[in-house]
């Protein structure tokens, strides 16, 4: 009986803690160690390529660093903000300084994004349109202001906060571009959910300025590489009509990743007679891209890379 009461007591304690705290995973992909500040107080030093877990009470919380021209009070730093302003949801968003952009910041959740909930938030350069400034940061939390204001569950979710997603400081990123189907500047080639893992599908999505839509490629023989990541557009080991595209770790001389960007704006798999193709030409968000037999004057196979 004593054991049962103790067990029940521990269960209650764990449940209570789960309801009263939020869990954060802070990741440093910057090329240098960073001082992590939480709510204006220096918290810890995180080495480049390392991370740290934080379990904090449910209150307004901000993360930032003074690295690369930021400062201890955060006024010159890009910040990740979290606000448990409702009974059910945690609101999260990015705030950038109008006077300095010291690091890019990305927020991902451990929950799968669906129906506008638990979507990724990312701002990787000063021109991003996915972050508030201190003057425009929200003071009330009732309706999402996509893509600036996001929401997910308060608890039982890990919030992953990455500084310098892609591994570089602003201004030092490789030259990158968005890729648009048939010159439609409102739609972009997109890594689904900004999940940089082997096998993540590549799709069409509304252009939103995130790193999931930034690519590196050149005219002629080329890889189609996710900017700032070691992942490439990959056609698989048995390319054929209707095979869906994905990203995969980049390898030299791998036929599935060797493309040719033609002067008439087709992205062809080298020596295969197959082209990057928009399935049925449908630009609805989430429509997957595929390979299909290359055909002259086929608008489903026209891709504009606009630097």
From TrEMBL:
<protein>
    <recommendedName>
        <fullName>Ricin B lectin domain-containing protein</fullName>
    </recommendedName>
</protein>
<feature type="signal peptide">
    <location>
        <begin position="1"/>
        <end position="18"/>
    </location>
</feature>
<keyword id="KW-0732">Signal</keyword>
<dbReference type="InterPro" id="IPR000772">
    <property type="entry name" value="Ricin_B_lectin"/>
</dbReference>
<dbReference type="InterPro" id="IPR035992">
    <property type="entry name" value="Ricin_B-like_lectins"/>
</dbReference>
<feature type="domain" description="Ricin B lectin">
    <location>
        <begin position="173"/>
        <end position="306"/>
    </location>
</feature>
<dbReference type="Pfam" id="PF00652">
    <property type="entry name" value="Ricin_B_lectin"/>
</dbReference>
